[in-house]
Amino acid sequence: MKTTRARRPQPAIREQKAADQQRAGLKSRKPAPSAADEFTSGYKPRDAKPAPGTSPRAATTTGAAAAAAAAEAPRGGRGVATKAKRMKMRAGSQHEVAVQKQLRAKRLTSAQVGEERLQKALAFSGIGSRRDMEELIAAGRVSVNGKIAELGVKVKQADEVRIDGKRVTMRWQDRLARVVLYHKQEGELVTRDDPQGRLTVFDRLPRLSSSKWVAVGRLDFNTSGLLIFTTSGDLANRMTHPRFEMEREYAVRVLGELTDEQIAELRKGITLDDGPAKFTHIEAQGGEGMNHWYRVVLKEGRNREVRRMFEHFGLTVSRLMRVRFGALTLPGRLKRGQFYELSETEVLAVMKWADLKLNGEAKDH
C-alpha cells in the first residue's frame, strides 16, 4: 500500500518562516550607540551642526558636559574607550621606505647599550614605576648576580636580576624609540591610573608589547591640543626638565582683552603664587565680540600656568590649545582624538635635535 507524507498546513509554514526571519534579524541587528560610546569614539567634526533650536554656545556647553560625564564614567562596560584612530599618511618613496625598514631593524650591541641604573632598567622592563622599583631595591628584595642590590647600582645585559628570588626578564633600550603625536580632546585625563577609574589618554593609545608609553608633559582636563608620547624616558626628560627650557606654544581664547601695558608686563614677568612667570612671546590674534585670541610661548609647564597668568589680570581663559612643544608641532590634519606616529627617519631627526643617541640615551661629550 502506497503511503503519502502528510503536508504541513500553509499557515504553519508561513509562521515558521516569519519566526526564522525574526531570529535572523535579531542576531544581525547592532545595538544603538550610547552617549558614552559616541564620546569615546574620538573625533567629532568641527562643522557638526547643533540640534534645531539650540544655539552654538549651548551646543558647545552640552558637548563639554557630555565629555565630562563620559570621563567620570567608571571603566568597564559602556565606559570603555575605543582606541584612537591613526592619521592617514601617504607612503614615502621606495628609498624612504627602505631607510625606515633598516632603522626599524637596527639593534645596538651590548657594548653600545652599556650599563643602566637598576631601577630605570626594571621600570623600562615594565615591572613597575621607577619609584616602585626604588622601594623594592631599598627593601632588599632585588638581587643582581646573586647579591642583594643597593640603590644606584648599574646593570648590563649579561647580568641576572631577580625579585624575591624569581628571575626577571629584562628589556633594554637597544632600538630606535617610538614617538606619537596625539591631539588631546577636552575632557580627557593625562594620567596612567586614575583613583576614580575614569578614562585616560593612555586608554586611547595603541598597546605596546615590549615597552610602555611615557607622556612628555601633561595637559589639564579642560585643555586640548598636542600631547607627545614616547618609549624613551630620556627623550621625555630632555623635553620636560626645566634646565632645558623647552618652548611650549599655545593658542588662547579669553573673555576680554589685554591692554598694551598688561602685554608688556606678561613679557617682562609677573609673580604668581608659586613664583615668577612670563611669556617669551605673546601676540594678539584678533577675536570676535568679547572673545579675543592670543598666541603665547613660554619655557616651562607648571600647573595651569597659562590660565593663571591671564587670571592675574582678571581675564578668564575660555579655550586653551597647545600647538607646539619644542621642535614638534601639532599637524594641521591631525583631528581631535587621533594620533600620528612619527616615522623612523622623523624619530631619528628628533633624537639628533635633542642630542640623544639612537636609543634615546644621552651622548657622551
UniProtKB/TrEMBL annotation:
SUPFAM superfamilies for this protein: Alpha-L RNA-binding motif (SSF55174), Pseudouridine synthase (SSF55120)
Q: Which CDD domains match?
A: PseudoU_synth_RluB, S4
RNA-binding S4 domain sequence ranges: 116-177
Output the InterPro entries linked to this UniProt entry.
PsdUridine_synth_cat_dom_sf (IPR020103), PsdUridine_synth_RsuA/RluA (IPR006145), PsdUridine_synth_RsuA/RluB/E/F (IPR000748), PsdUridine_synth_RsuA/RluB_CS (IPR018496), RsuA_PseudoU_synthase (IPR050343), S4_RNA-bd (IPR002942), S4_RNA-bd_sf (IPR036986)
Superkingdom in the source lineage: Bacteria
Q: Where is this region: Disordered?
A: 1-94
Record's compositionally biased regions (Low complexity): 50-74
| PROSITE patterns documented for this protein | PSI_RSU, S4
First-tier enzyme category under EC = isomerase
Q: What's in the keyword line of the UniProt record?
A: Isomerase, RNA-binding
Q: Which family does it belong to?
A: Belongs to the pseudouridine synthase RsuA family.
Full protein name: Pseudouridine synthase
From which organism does this entry originate? Answer: Jeongeupia naejangsanensis
